[in-house]
Every structure is written in C-alpha cells, then in structure tokens.
Design goal:
Helix content: 25-40%
Strand order of the largest sheet: 1-3
Length: about 550
C-alpha cells in the first residue's frame, strides 16, 4: 500500500501580522490561511490527514469487547451496564468522530482554492473525503441515533446551539453521499499501483450495503447493491476471496496485496510510519506479550461448527467437550489460541501454548484464573488472528486492518436474500459454500446446500466466525436485537472452573443489557453542558 505508507498531519498556520507594515500583506515566508490550499502538497497532506482520522486500531479491536465475542477491561462499564452519560468511552468516541467530520468539512470547503491540481483530481479527492465523513456519520448514527448533522465549517458559537437531526435524515445523508462516491470514484483496478489503498467506488457500495443491512427493512436494496458489485467487476473492481484465510491477516504480502480487501486501515512495515501494537496485550503471555486486555469468550468458541457442518449442539455432530478443538471449523485455529495450541513463532519454531492451570511444565501449579489476574487470559483463550510474525519489539505491527472485505459482501448478500425468502442453492454456493471452501472445509455435508435448515442461524453463525475480531459483532447483535439475550448473564471462558457451576466453564464477567434504553448510547454529559439545544436519549 504505497500511497499511505506515511501519513502527514497538515496544519493550517494562520499568521497574525502585527507591525507597521500594511495589514493586508500576505507573508511570503510562511503558509497562511490565504495560500495554504493553493499548494498541492498541502492538499495531499490534508487528504492524508483525513484518512488517518477516519478510524484507528483501538476502535477497531476493542469494539468486540462490547459484544459476546470477547472480554476486555477497556469497555467494562458498557459490558456490565454500569455506564452513564459521563463514561469516558462515549465522550472520546463522540469527540473523535466530530473532530474527523470537522476536518472533512474544512477540506471540502477549501480545496477548490487550489488551481494547480487537475479538476478530476480534486473531484476524486472530494469523493474520498465525503466517504470518510459518511463513515463517521454512520458510526454516530449507529451508536446514538439522532445526532447533529454538520456539513459545513461552523464557528464555536454555532456549535453551542446546534440540535440533533433525526436519524432518518442522517441515514439519508449517508446513503446519498455513498451513492455519489460510488459514481465519482475509480475502481481499485483503475487506480495506479502507487495509489493502492485509496477509497474506491466498490468500497462506497460495500459500505452502503452495510449501512442498509443495519436498517433491517432495506434488504432488497442490499441485494441490489451486492449484485452490482458481484456482476460488474469491470466497473466496481474485480474482487474475490483470498485463497488463505489466516494469511489475509498475518502474512504481510497477502495482507497488503490481495483480491479481497475493499478498504483497510493502512499501516507501514518497518520502524517508520504508522503502526499499531494492540497485539502486545492480546497474544499469549508465554510468547512475549505483556498482559491480556482482550480475550475471546467461550460463547464465540462454541459457534465454530464441526468440519461436518454441524453445530456442536447437535448430538450427532461428534463434538466431545473433553476434546473440544478437534474437527472444528479451521477458522477457529486461525483466530483463537486454545490450550495445547501449536503456536508458530517468527523464527519458524513451534511452541506449545499451555493454558489450562497447572499443566505448563515450565510453571508451578497456580490458580491462574483468579479474578483480576492480568498475567493470563481470564477466559482461557488468546487471539491468533492479526498476529504479525514480523512484528517489532513490543509487538509493533505494520499489518493493515481489514475494514471492509469481499467476504462481508457475500455475507450481506446471503443474509439479505434469506430474509427475502430467496435463499437457494445458487446463492448458497456463491456465498456460504465459497467461504467454507476457502476456510478449508472439504466434507460435502458442510459444503452442500442444506435446504430447509435453520438458515437464519446458519448465516448468523457464519458471519460471526468469519468476521471475528473485525469489530462487527457488536453492531450485528444490536441490529438483530440479540443484545438483550446474549449480553445478559455471564460471559464464559474455557472449562477450567468449578465443575458444579456452569458445567465447569469459567464465569468471566457478569453482564447486563437494558433493552429499554441500551440500544442507544447516552449523549455525553459534557456535550449537553456545552450545547443547550442537545437533548438526551431516553432512559438516561
């Protein structure tokens, strides 16, 4: 991803001239607000800045600990239902998205001052920034519902009196912006190699499909968008599943150059440029990680089917709770580290990961799963997905983080077709079967169209396991209205606990979700204090 190997933050230097010289003179030795945008390198740097503000690794990874996929300490108040309008997460996210929107609005209001870049280049840049702004508004709408819709540069005083726009208005804005971007942006195949990583028309359509899938009542629109992408590769880019699931996240070459990625957070290999290091707190401690701040749950592990296509709850599946990781979906091993896991080290050696208390020959028997013990995973699982075998000290990585990929489009299409009563063998073969074949399934019972099975749960389970640790589970259970079911009660870990309690599965965290209000977050109290026209969501 050459274009975004280095991201520069462009800052407007507004110089106040106070001397005996004429006050309307423009300084010739410094950039000012009057000439900043006329310099093309400044425009490019400002565009790069907007890319860097769109999302970050912390938001990407820690989204999952607000779902039933993971336990983590970062969003504990949200997971346990003990939050309020002053919780730091809400204040931080609100500020993050609106800061990015403000930067986008400034770019869109100013970039036409440049007369050296071609009109087609400026038009493309505007579409890229409009996409980023739409992304931010989708996230705001998703978490808060009605939010202020600000599409131009405003003053601090104006910001203190702006009210919330109806969610339907924000949704209409987001979808219309994405449609305009799809019409105005090149496909990935039309960009030069040096521009690999830029936002494309295919990414715009794929994000629109995600947005409309979230609505639940726009499934025909989702089908139409997905079919545009699937049937028009010459217009929207030639996408397909990468051949190796695990390599897509951990092999640097595949991760950065493949046929599946539609949009990714761009990072740089080596000691310079943008990087992330969250895996320092995700990987097994025995491999050199620091602590464990995000651990997979037993509930996620349970959703990986057997290689014969049957869920572990099926008494004919062959599942053995005393040998639970045998004959499971290959994506389990590509995603999650379990006891006796064969960990491939960067030097090519194999290390056995001992997790069950008292089994590690290199350690004395300990009650490692005592509450609050961050020296191990409190769930008895670690993450393998996104481990970078070429990481720098401190697990610093330059791997890209997948924001939208072709697998999601296939899952969107399968879910939408099924919801319309249109699932059939042809749709199955293009979507679920293709995903399972890529994952490594070979049993015809797992690959063939199952007919009148419980297709809704099959698709939900497939989506969960395919996209685990990619930040989508939280919004999925919200749009399916499953949060009140899966986020009430204990999140569990591996079967290393008291055998008389929950069949021995560790009770990791007691969670609470109030369906009467928690499907929306509270507007941050600090924002309500600043803006007299903001109103609070119900129940807060």
């Amino acid at each position: 991803m050459k274009y975004f190997k280095k991201l520069f933050i462009a800052t407007l230097a507004i110089i106040a001239v106070s001397s005996c010289k004429k006050l309307d003179l423009v300084p010739t030795n410094k950039f000012t607000d009057q000439d900043f945008w006329t310099t093309s390198i400044n425009v490019n740097n400002a565009l790069n800045n907007n890319y860097s503000l769109m999302y970050n690794s912390n938001l990407y990874f820690y989204n999952d600990d607000m779902s039933d996929n993971a336990y983590g300490s970062g969003n504990d108040p949200i997971a346990t239902g003990s939050f309020n309008a002053s919780t730091a997460k809400f204040i931080g996210d609100w500020t993050y998205y609106y800061s990015a929107i403000n930067s986008c609005n400034l770019f869109l209001a100013s970039v036409d001052q440049n007369k050296t870049l071609g009109a087609d280049v400026i038009a493309r840049m505007k579409c890229e920034v409009r996409f980023i702004r739409a992304w931010d508004y989708f996230n705001l709408m998703k978490w808060w519902g009605d939010v202020p819709l600000i599409t131009s540069v405003i003053t601090p005083d104006q910001a203190k009196v702006i009210g919330r726009s109806p969610r339907a208005t924000v949704l209409s804005f987001v979808t219309s912006e994405l449609e305009a971007c799809a019409a105005g942006l090149p496909s990935k195949d039309q960009y030069a190699a040096a521009d690999n990583g830029r936002i494309t028309n295919g990414a715009a359509l794929a994000l629109e499909a995600r947005v409309l899938l979230y609505e639940g009542n726009r499934m025909q629109d989702v089908v139409t968008i997905c079919e545009k992408l699937m049937n028009n590769p010459s217009t929207y880019g030639n996408y397909s599943l990468a051949s190796n699931y695990g390599a897509l996240f951990s092999d640097a070459t595949v991760n950065k150059t493949n046929t599946e990625t539609m949009l990714a957070l761009q990072y740089s290999e080596g000691t310079t440029g943008r990087a992330w290091s969250e895996d320092f707190d995700f990987a097994p401690i025995s491999t050199g990680a620091r602590v464990n701040s995000l651990a997979p749950t037993q509930e996620l592990v349970n959703d990986y089917i057997m290689t014969n296509g049957k869920p572990i709850t099926d008494p004919t599946s062959g599942y053995d709770q005393n040998n639970p990781y045998v004959n499971r979906d290959p994506r389990l091993t590509a995603t999650i580290v379990y006891d006796q896991y064969k960990w491939l080290n960067p030097d090519g050696t194999i290390q056995i990961i001992y997790i069950k208390p008292g089994t590690d020959p290199n350690k004395p028997p300990l009650n490692e799963y005592a509450p609050g013990n961050e020296a191990v995973s409190q769930s008895g699982y670690y993450w393998r997905k996104y481990f970078d075998p070429n990481h720098l000290p401190g697990f610093v990585s330059g791997l890209n983080l997948q924001m939208i990929r072709w697998a999601e489009v296939l899952l969107d299409y399968a879910e939408a077709e099924n919801s319309l009563g249109q699932m059939n063998a042809d749709v199955w073969n293009k979507t679920i079967m293709a995903l399972r074949q890529r994952a490594g399934f070979t049993d015809p019972n797992a690959l063939n169209y199952p007919g009148n099975s419980d297709m809704t749960n099959i698709i939900m389970r497939e989506r969960r396991t395919e996209l685990a640790m990619e930040g989508l589970r939280t919004e999925d259970i919200r749009r399916w209205k499953l949060s009140e079911t899966v986020l009430n009660g204990y999140a569990h870990g591996a079967r290393y606990g008291d055998p008389t309690v929950d069949n021995g599965y560790i009770r990791v965290q007691l969670r609470h979700f109030d369906a009467t209000k928690n499907y929306l977050w509270p507007i941050p109290q600090s924002e309500l204090n600043l803006d007299k026209n903001l109103t609070q969501n119900p129940g807060y």
